[in-house]
Amino acid sequence: MGVILCILTFPAGNKNSKIAFPASKETAATQGQSVVTQQDAAAYEQELEQRVKEILRGVWGVGEVDVMIVLKASSEKVIQVDNSSSRSTTTEKGGGTDRVVESMDQEHSTVLTGSGSGQEPVVAKEIYPEISGIVISASGGGSASVRAEISEAMESLFGLPAHKIKVLKRVE
User: 8-13 contacts: CB < 8 A, separation 24 or more?
Assistant: First the structure.
């Protein structure tokens, strides 16, 4: 019975997420609660665009570059939650009949850090969104070999299929 309770207290997790950075380990007594944030997704998107731009500028034949990355959803922060449960069983005998009363109490509380009014929830892990597509405008985008190299680089970097990557010739 105890093994079943331990198995049931572990969170199921999202198997579709590509990138996850755990901040702390979860135990059998703790479980995560998700908080979705749009601002983090926009900052993540801009950071990826800037990094791709910088790497492509150094590639021969690419030239000046503009990058647009589209995400499927926003990022998600899993907040640390303490769960506690107690179970009691009472057996009453009387009048030729037995009566069994079972009660179970569960309590959930968010783990906070800091003191006073400056308390913030503890983030167990942060799940960054998947990339939906990439559009790259490059000065060297008129060359088929440059387009192929850029597309292959994005495929290997982000694991995207070729039809979700578009390389265009930049207007000077």
Answer: 9/83
| Cα(164)–Cα(135) distance, integer angstroms | 8
Taken in order 139, 140, 141, 142, is the CA torsion positive or negative? positive
**Residue 152: CB atoms within 10 Å:** 12
- What's the gap between Cα 51 and its chain centre? 20
Q: Show Cβ contacts of residue 8 under 8 Å, excluding neighbours closer than 6 positions.
A: none
User: Residues near 142 by Cβ (< 8 Å), separated by ≥ 6?
Assistant: 169
User: How confident is the prediction along the chain (172 residues), in pLDDT tens digits per residue?
Assistant: 555 554 545 444 444 433 333 333 333 334 455 555 566 678 888 999 999 999 998 899 999 999 999 988 777 788 888 888 888 888 888 777 888 888 888 888 888 888 777 888 888 887 888 899 999 999 998 999 999 999 999 999 999 999 999 999 988 7
